[in-house]
Amino acid sequence: MEVPVLNQQGKEIGKISIDESSLGGCVNPALIKQAYVRYHANQRQGSARTRSRGMVEGSTRKLFKQKGTGRARVGAVRSNIRKGGGVTFAKTRTREDYRKDMPVKMRRKANRNALLAKLIDGEVKVLDSLDFKTPRTSEFLGMLEALGINRTCLVALNMNNTEAILSSRNIEHVDVCPAHEITVFNMLNHRFLIIAKSELEAWLSGPSSKIDKSAKAGARKGGN
């Protein structure tokens, strides 16, 4: 697969060759969904709590007498059927675990497969470099317009590139992440991906490309 390499003015200045077989060969929607659900579930804290009627502050006095008023019978203000009352089956567990596991090789294949899907759809913009002399939001907006970015966008770059980070932080629907932390989750949460050619080559040849037994060793060190 030949992917065009653009400059910051949106003009094609070259191409980069990417082996589709190294990205899975064809898009596997089931694998991508499984990995996406796993990343999403693992972000849940599991700390949601609710109060039963015994935990809610308020009087236990019966609001009015049982008979003779012509109204429906009613109990205390803390009843679960009243606004501000307790919850019938309150969540009281200390911690709920929503974590899902997935083999490292499957995770990495899903990450590469999601990149393949975006490459096929033309949603990856590979730049020769992503350099700004000074932090300037207007220049970053001009670059997005030149690249045809009109939806949500993920910018993957070296976190030492302070000028680019500062230039993009006030732009709505644009998020920045370290290039080595590109995953199926943050790729699918954005329509476009912007990445420098050198960072893309490093990602393709880095830990994410290992699907043999050496992948497990990389996982202990924080590999994707």
Structure description:
The protein has 224 residues and is an alpha/beta fold. It has two domains: 2-44 and 102-219, Ribosomal Protein L4, Chain: A (3-Layer(aba) Sandwich), CATH 3.40.1370.10; 45-97, no CATH class. The protein has seven helices and six strands. The chain has a six-stranded mixed sheet. A hairpin with a 5-residue loop joins strand 1 (2-6) and strand 2 (12-17). Helix 3 crosses helix 4 (162-168). The radius of gyration is 26 Å and the shape is elongated. 23% of the residues are buried.
The low-confidence parts are: none
Going by CATH, the architecture of the largest domain would be: 3-Layer(aba) Sandwich
CATH topology of the largest domain: Ribosomal Protein L4, Chain: A
Major sheet characteristics: 6 strands, mixed
Helix and strand composition category: alpha/beta
Radius of gyration, taken over Cα atoms and rounded to an integer in Å? 26 Å
Superfamily at the CATH H level of the largest domain? Ribosomal protein L4/L1
Domains (count):
2
Question: How would you spell out the order of helices and strands?
Answer: EEHHEHEHEHEHH
Strand order of the largest sheet: 2-1-3-6-4-5
Tally of separate helices? 7
Mean pLDDT: 89
